[in-house]
Amino acid sequence: MVRLLLVLACASCGGAQYQSQRVAPPVDRSLFARDPGGQLSEEALQTLLAAPVELVLPARVGVLPIITAEDWRGPSPDWKRVPAGVAPFARALRGTEPFGIVTEMLPIPSGALGMEALREAAARYALRYILLYREGVRHRERANGWAAGYATLVGMLFLPGQTLEVDGYLEASLFDVKTGLLLFTVRRSVTGRRGSNLWYVGEKLDRLEAQVTDKYAPTLGEDVRADVLRFAEAVKVENDRHAVGILQP
Known about the structure:
The chain is of the alpha/beta class. The protein has helices at residues 42-50, 86-93, 115-124, 153-158, 201-245, and strands at residues 4-5, 17-18, 56-57, 61-67, 69-71, 74-77, 102-104, 108-109, 129-143, 162-176, 181-196, 247-248. It is elongated, with a radius of gyration of 24 Å.
């Protein structure tokens, strides 16, 4: 198990004198307003930019699918459209460094409740971080050369005169429940194609989308693990640079 605790520390060097013994501590709570807008004052903004970044792993991590609301009249999510890639994405993260426990969470509608709702949902699972998982996939269909056979009624029954395509992206963002900060976002392009006759095109497109997301979601999980390690290295370098900056020769 690897424990990454990246905080700004005072570094000592021979013959150097400290300009100040006081170092800004990492932010230990959310400075955003507790409303859907999540407003941030100028003072709070400057505090966040000046404070060192803290990343503590392994920790309890949740995968929270962000889905579209069922309709404009309320925040209820469309339960029939829970992203198909959530389960394979979570499986790709379980039992691997730098994550400990990884749990799937109930979906939450996109943009309806604000970031504070994410923190409250995570608190019910006692999670330190959550991965916000989103799928943006478009469906397209077009006629191909086989469609010429539709001139005969028999051809319409079985010829694959339609080309079905899905394309878009899978996205995951690491969210710090303690501070309300988004640490990074990873996005991977996805695409898929198949031929079809004229029957049940909508169902075939849904099935093609599920196949594509099931294929690429584990790869997105690998990208997330790699970015966590890169993020940890970058934060260590930045915090060390701040520590050197407070020293005077």
